[in-house]
Amino acid sequence: MTPERAKKLEEVITKRQHGLTVVMENVHDPHNIYAVMRTCDAVGIQDIYVLNTQLPKEGYFGIKSSSSANKWLTIHSFDNVSDCFAELRTKYQSIYTTYLGESSKSVYDINFTNSIALVFGNEHKGVTKEARDLADGNFIIPQVGMIPSLNISVACAVAIYEAFRQRKAAGLYDHNAQPHPEAEQIKTLWASFSAS
């Protein structure tokens, strides 16, 4: 591995945000899954959760993205909502789901400097009621058009870039950054990719 590559890996790992994650529940389109992964990598989210209770497990990650973002992330896979949320509760202070309801808060009213997990549902039915019932609340992305929802990868990008903005302003990528608890193991894995 070149010194330049080693420096790049070190710079990236220091900005990984272990207090922020995305959960994709029953997302059907692999292209949406990989688009979300690429955006997560861009804003320094290391851990993402893929919750699949409805789709065939064979070939679920059957396509390869040209960005190969998935190899730089830690992907936690679950096939049970309760088990997934139980693990989230051990790592994140609050869990919010995307849901268009009267009590839903704007994504711009969420304090993303706290430890938080955001749950995004599938392209057709959104987040399941079971997941909503286990969450701390719901959020929406304000819109003024005729169609009341965004594509899941677009919605995720809007939400986590708001998180990025807030966390960047709070210094969580710089002087107030908290190292990822598995930073050394992640760096070792990344180095193996770079060496091959």
Task: Provide an overview of this structure.
The chain is of the alpha/beta class and 196 residues long. The relative contact order is 0.20. It has a single domain (17-179), classed as SPOUT methyltransferase, trefoil knot domain (Alpha/beta knot, 3-Layer(aba) Sandwich), CATH 3.40.1280. It is built from 6 helices and 7 strands, in the order H-E-H-E-E-H-E-E-E-H-E-H-H. Strands 3-2-1-6-4-7-5 form a 7-stranded parallel β-sheet, sandwiched between helices. The protein is globular and about 50 Å long. It has helices at 3-13, 30-42, 81-91, 129-134, 152-169, 183-195, and strands at 20-25, 47-51, 74-78, 94-98, 105-106, 116-120, 137-140. The longest helix is centred in the last third of the chain and has 18 residues, at 152-169.
Key traits:
196 residues; alpha/beta; seven-stranded parallel β-sheet; 6 helices
**What is the string of helix and strand elements?**
HEHEEHEEEHEHH
Helix share bin: 25-40%
In spatial order, strands of the major sheet run 3-2-1-6-4-7-5
Name the shape in a single word.
globular
What is the fold's blueprint, element by element?
Layout: H1 3-13, E1 20-25, H2 30-42, E2 47-51, E3 74-78, H3 81-91, E4 94-98, E5 105-106, E6 116-120, H4 129-134, E7 137-140, H5 152-169, H6 183-195
Parallel strand pairs: 1-2, 1-6, 2-3, 4-6, 4-7, 5-7
Helix pairs in contact: 1-6, 2-5
